[in-house]
Amino acid sequence: MKIYDTKTAPTPRRVRIFLAEKNIDMEYVQVDITKGENLSKTMREKNPIGKVPILELDDGTCISESDAICTYFEAIQPEPSLMGETPLEKATIAMWQRQVEFCLFMQVGMCFQHSTGHFKDRMTPVPEYGKEAGINASKFLSVLEKRLANHAFIAHDKFSIADITALCAIDFARVVDIRLGDNHVNLKRWYADVSARPSAKA
After folding, report:
1. Which of 114, 116, 130, 195 falls between 20 and 30 A from 76, CA-CA?
2. Distance between CA atoms of residues 38 and 26, nearest Å
3. What would the mean pLDDT of 11-21 be, rounded to a whole number?
4. What is the DSSP string of 84-110?
5. Of 76, 97, 112, which marks where a domain is finished?
6. Which ranges of 101-202 would DSSP assign to H, the alpha helix?
7. What DSSP string runs through 134-150?
């Protein structure tokens, strides 16, 4: 199997960190999204919406969406668990993963796309939307700051996929000048801890 990946993009990085945590070796095929290689006929046959990452199994089956790819690997290699073991753990991690994805990760992505015009050759940037998305992302950092006042990790008492998504979002947010501030004491402690994990270099 192999994964179609873009080393500089935050979404594929989520999968790379997830697999690194599970110590799963993988062949990565680099796709240049800046040049639009992800929009080619060949790539659209693997994922009709032309996004990476894409997991291609040995029989040619393709799975796109980072969360879906991670779910697949969690099922075939449950340990170490990154999506929960008990029903309550699974639900709690899924809840925080969804909130981090919608309220932080996607907001940072929309801020980047609409503020910088990086993909203006294939979309119509709306600068006002980009600005609002950046504000929304910054606001959610306060939610995480409060959560991490009493928790070592975002969703559970151990590292999970929610932490991976938040780490990738916060790292990429620097591109649009969204950064942790002096008021983010708990977030900075958490950020230092998760950034020190070997998987963060994936």
Report:
1. 195
2. 20
3. 98
4. -SSHHHHHHHHHHHHHHIIIIIHHHHH
5. 76
6. 106-116, 127-147, 161-173, 185-195
7. HHHHHHHHHHHHHHTTS
Could you give the CA distance from residue 81 to residue 190 in angstroms, rounded to a whole number? 19
Task: For 114-153, write each residue's pLDDT tens digit.
Answer: 999 888 888 899 999 999 999 999 999 999 999 999 999 9
Same domain? 125 vs 34: no
By residue range, what is the domain housing residue 14? 2-76
Q: Edge-to-edge strands of the sheet including 2-5?
A: 27-30, 2-5, 54-56, 62-64
- Asked if residue 82 belongs to a domain, the reply is no
CB 202 within 8 A of CB 66: no
pTM of the model: 0.95
- The mean pLDDT value for 7-19 works out to 97
Mean confidence (pLDDT) of the chain: 97
Q: Is the pLDDT of residue 188 over 90?
A: yes
Whether residue 115 sits in one domain with residue 31: no
For tokens 């990085």, name the residue: 13
Read off the DSSP letter of residue 46.
Answer: H
Find, among 12, 62, 64, the residue nearest to 168 by Cα. Answer: 12
Boundary residue ending a domain (76, 99, 126): 76
